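2.7 Reproducibility. Because tokenized structures are sensitive to small changes in the input, we list the exact sequence used for N-acetylglucosaminyl-phosphatidylinositol de-N-acetylase, including any N-terminal residues retained from the expression construct. No trimming or masking was applied before prediction.
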Amino acid sequence: MEVVGLLLCVAAAVLTWGFLWVWDSWERMKSPEQAGLPGGGSRTLLVTAHPDDEAMFFAPTVLGLVRLRHQVSLLCFSAGNYYNQGETRKNELLQSCDVLGIPPSNVMIIDNRDFPDDPGVWWDTERVADVLLRHVEASRINLVVTFDAGGVSGHSNHVALYAAARTLHAQGKLPKGCLVLTLQSVNLLRKYLSLLDLPCSLLCARDALFLLSRREAAQAQRAMSCHRSQLLWFRHLYVLFSRYMRINSLHFL
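Resulting structure tokens (single pass, no recycling of outputs):
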């Protein structure tokens, strides 16, 4: 009995320590300075490939930056016309952005044959980089947020955005002080652990981490529900179980 009591005490101590650690990490996540992010009022450009990327993958980042009083804009490189639903998906994107706190005036959708919504097509890096740089300069962007080399899902259009951002960064073409933050891709198991992935996210190296509150998670789900044309049965499961609907880990280039 004494051994059992001792084990219970140790377990309680570990759980208490874990709770305090997570709480402390959450408090530090609220501070933009802790993560090296630009402060409130900064102009941030989210760069995505398709309508629904902003809600499906980046909702924690967008809501976190809005919470930090960033002026968030969206540059979407296609209308998502793979199944000839481009016009419908444009409208769904605007509705989703409104839920996430991005006004319609801050949303730019590129509907260009150079950037087709097609996982079998690699977008030309130089062309993507040229379009991206023009938007960064025109809007005097301080922070660019996009996919990393894994593209979260491995989609070639996602990876093409990373390649363009990396090229601009490596060649020193971005305006002075403009940072690039990329969304960390994780393995399949972690991808569908939802909040159970939080301890691993806290332990793993990252430059920024955004975790949604219960209210914000509901907001992210409302944003995703705006993409009605994309809500097939497996996407409903994605909304329920994907960590990307609750947690975003990001790295600076």
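The longest strand covers residues 43-48.
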